[in-house]
Amino acid sequence: MALLLGILLLLGLYTKTISGGQPVSTSSPGAFDYELPPIKYETQDNYEAGPISFLFQVVGLFLHVVQPHDFPVDYLREILEKKSESSVDYQKIAYYEIGIIICAILGLLFVILMPLVGLFFCMCRCCGKCGGEMHQRQKESGGYQRRCFALSLLVICFLISFGIFCGFVANVHIQTWMNNTERLASSNFKDLHTFLTETPKQIDFIVAQYTTVRDRSFSDLDRVDSMLGGAILEQLKPEVVPVLDNVKAMATAMRETREALEDMKNSLRSLSSGSSLLNNSLANVKDSIQDSLDSNDCSSAQAQETCERIRSSLRDLENTPEWDQLPSVDQKLSSVNEILKTNLDELVSQGSRSLEEIPHTIKNQTTRAIEDVKSVLNSVGHNIDSVSQQLPIQNMLSSFVDSLNNAESHFYHYKSYMEKYDPSWWLSSLVICFLVSLIVMFYYLGLLCGVCGYDRKATPTTRGCVSNTGGVFLMTGVGLSFLFCWILMFLVTFTFVIGANMEKLVCEPYANKKFFEVLDTPYLLNKDWKYYLSGMILGHSDTELTFEQVYSACKNDKGVYTALKLQKTFNIRDHLNIQQHTGNIVNKFENMKFQLGSITLLDDAGRTNLQEFAASGVDQIDFDTYLAQANKSTVKVDLLGFASKLEEDANKLSSGSLRQSLKTDAQTIRRIHQQQVLPMEQSLSTLQQSIKMLQRTTNELQNKVAEILFSLDSAQNFITNNISSIIAQETKQFVRTITGYFEHYLQWVEVTLSEKMASCKPVTRALDSAISVFLCSYTVDPLNLFWFGIGKATVLLLPALILAVKLAKYYRQMHSEDIYDNVETVPMKNMENGNNGYHKDHLYGVHNPVMQAGYDIDSWS
C-alpha cells in the first residue's frame, strides 16, 4: 500500500504539471545577491537501521550467494513486451531463480521428509530399534563419545540460539515499524503540504525582488549627473586639471613677482636714503672726534699715544655701498602691474567651471530619456508579473492538494487495518520464536541435567534421577523437533521465497536504479509512445524524458521545471526575453545626442597675458649684481665695537674735557648704529629675500610659459577630438550598469524558476520512504532476517536431534545392562572372545546380582 502511495504521489505531481510551466535560467553574478528563503523539511534523506544493520548485511551476503545474478532487465523487458504467457521463456526465469528454487525445493523436501522420518523413527523406537531398547552396550570409547556428543550438541544449540536471537530481533523490528511508519508518513505528508504551500510564496518572493532592482535603477537614473556626467568629467580631469593647475601656479608666480619687485624697489629706496644719512652722521661724528683730538689735552706724553691710536681708527668710520649706482626696477614693476590688470585666475576659473558644468548639462539633456527608461523598467516589472501569472502552478497545486488529501486519508484508513492485524503478526512470529526456543531449552536442560547428574560409578541401570531427567529432556526436545520442525521449515520456505524475491526484484534494483531501466524501455508501457513520461507530460514522446532522469533530478534538489523538461511546453527564456528589455533601454540612450557646448580651458586674453609675462624681462634682471651689493655691510667697521673701543681709550685719559667729549662721541656712534644701521640691515635682508624670490619665480620663465601654452593646446585638442567618444563610452558603461541589474535579476529569475523553485525533492523522499524505507527497511529486511534466523535454527535442529538421541543413551537409566562371566575381565581384556567377552543377562534368563552391586567399572564412564 505504501509503495502504491509513493508512486501515486510522484506520478500525481508529474501529471498535474503537464499544463504548467516553470522558468529556466542560468546563474550569473550581479550587484545583488538573491536567494530563495530556505524551506525546512522534516523527512531525512537517509535511513539508518542501527546496530542490527550488520545482521541485515549478513542476510544480504547469503542472498547474494544464493542468487548472484544481476537484476534481469532484459528478461523483464521481454516479459512485459510479450503479452501472451505462451511466449514467455520460462527457462530464462528459472535460470535467474535457480538459487531460490533450489533452496525452496530443499525446504519442501525437508517439510515432506521430516514428518515421515519422524513417523518411522517413532515406530522404530516403539519396536525397540533405533535406540528404543533401554539397554546400553559397554564400549571402551564410551566416555569419549559422550563428551563429543555433549560438546557438539552444545555448540549447535549456541548456533540455534543465535538464529532464535535473529528471529526475536526481526520480530521486535517488525513490531516497531508501525509507529515508525506513522511518523514517516506524517513527516512526508507534512513535507508535501509544505511544498505545496511554500511554492506560491516562492513565486511571490521572486516577483517582489523586482522592486529592489527597480528602486536601485531609479536611484541611479536620478543620479545621472554624478554617475554619467561625473564619469565623463573623471575621464577629462587627468588631461585637463594638471594644465589648469600649472596656469594657476603661473598666475600665483605673477603676483609673487610683483610683490618681490615692490619689496625690492622699496628696499633700494630705503637703502639709498639711509646710506646718505648714514654718511652725514658718520662724518659729523668723525669731525667731532677730530676736533677733540686737536685740543691741547692730547699734547701730554701720557695722552698722546692714546690720541694717535684714536686718530688712526677714524678712517674706518665710513659707509661702504653706493646704492645709487644699482639699476632701478621701476620699469619691470610697471610691466608686471600692467600684466596683472588681466585677472588670469578668473580666466582659469572660467575654464574649470565649463568642465564642472558637464554633469548638470548631462542631467538636463537626459530628462526625457530617463523618463522613457523608467517606463521601460516598469514594463519589465509588468512582464515578469505576467509571466508568473501565466505559470499554471496554482491550478496544478490546487489539483495536487486534492490528490494528496485523498492519499493521506487512504493511508490513515488502511493504517487502522494494519494496526488491527499487527498484533496477530507479531504474536505469530513470537510463537514461532518461542517454539524453537522451547526445543532448544529442552536440549540445554538435558545437557545441564545430564552433565551435572552423571555419575561415573553408576551402572547404566543405576544412574541417578538427575541424569535420567537430562536424557528425558533430550528426548523431549527430539520429539518436539520431529513434531514442529517441518511446520517451521514450511514457514521459513514461504517467507524465504517472498523475502528473497522482494529483495532481489524490488529493493536492490530500486537502490541501483536498474528498476527504472525497465520502465524507461521505449514503447514498453505504451506502444505508441517512445518515452512514456514524455508522452504523458509533454505531449510528444520523442523527447527523452525517463523515470531515471526525473528521479535523479529530483534527488539532486532540482525544480520540477528542469526535472520534467517543461521548457518544451513553456519556455521561460522566450517569455522573459531578456535581450529585448535590455535592448529597449540601450536604444533610449543611444538615440540621445548630447550638446555640451564649447569647452575652452583658457581664452586668448589669458594666453596673451602669459606671453606678456614671459616677455616682461623680469627673468633678465642682473640678480648677481644686486646680491653682491646686498651681501656687503653698511659700514666698514662695527660701530658698536668702535664705540666701545673709543670709550675704553677715553677712560685711559685723565679727567677733563677730552675724556668727556670722546665718551659723548661714543654714545653718538651707538645711537647711529641703533637708529640708522639696523634699519638699513633690515632693508638689506628684505632685498636679499626679494631677489631670491625673483630668481625662483622667473627661473626658466619663457620655457615654462611655452610649456604651459603647449599643454593648453594639447588639452584643448584632447577635449575637442575625444569628448564625443568619451561621452559615448561612459554612456554605454552607464547603460550597462542599469541593464546589468536587470540582466542579473532576470537570469536569477530564470535559474530560480527552472531549477530551485518547486523543488521536487520531497516527492523523491516520499517515494524513497515508501519503497526504500517502508517496504525494504521496515518490511523486507526484518522478514529476511526472520526466515534467515529461524531457518538456520530449524536446519540445525536436524543434527541436534541426532546428537540428542545419541547422547540420551548416556544419561537415561537403562532397564538392562551387560553381564560378564568373569568380573575380573570387565576391563575389556577379552573383547575378542566370543560375544566380545560379555553377554546379556536376559539371554540366559539368569539374574546376576553381582552386576547390580555397583562395581567401579571405568569403561562405563
Question: Which properties best describe this structure?
Answer:
single chain, 861 residues, mainly alpha, two-stranded antiparallel sheet, 27 helices, disordered N terminus
Lay out the secondary structure.
Layout: H1 2-16, H2 53-66, H3 73-81, H4 90-96, H5 98-126, H6 142-222, H7 224-293, H8 301-313, H9 330-339, H10 344-356, H11 358-365, H12 367-390, H13 393-453, H14 465-511, H15 514-519, H16 532-538, H17 547-555, H18 560-563, H19 572-576, H20 578-590, H21 604-614, H22 623-630, H23 639-652, H24 657-698, H25 701-756, H26 761-811, E1 818-819, E2 839-840, H27 841-844
Antiparallel strand pairs: 1-2
Helix pairs in contact: 1-13, 1-26, 5-14, 6-12, 6-13, 6-25, 6-26, 7-9, 7-10, 7-11, 7-24, 7-25, 8-23, 12-20, 13-14, 13-26, 14-26, 17-26, 20-25, 21-25, 22-24, 23-24
Structure explained in plain terms:
This protein has 861 residues and is mainly α. It is 73% helix and 0% strand. A two-stranded antiparallel sheet has the order 1-2. α1 packs antiparallel against α13 (393-453), α1 packs antiparallel against α26 (761-811) and α7 (224-293) runs antiparallel to α24 (657-698). Residues 1-31 and 820-861 have low confidence and may be disordered.
Estimate the helix proportion, in percent: over 70%
What is the H-and-E element order?
HHHHHHHHHHHHHHHHHHHHHHHHHHEEH
Radius of gyration from the alpha-carbon trace, in angstroms: 62 Å
Structural class given helices, strands, pairing? mainly alpha
Uncertain residue ranges: 1-31, 820-861
| Strands, count | 2
Query: N- to C-terminal separation?
Result: 63 Å
What overall form do the CA principal axes indicate? Answer: elongated
Q: Strand fraction band?
A: under 5%
Tally of contiguous helical segments: 27
Can you summarize the main beta sheet? 2 strands, antiparallel
Average pLDDT confidence is 75
Strand order of the largest sheet: 1-2
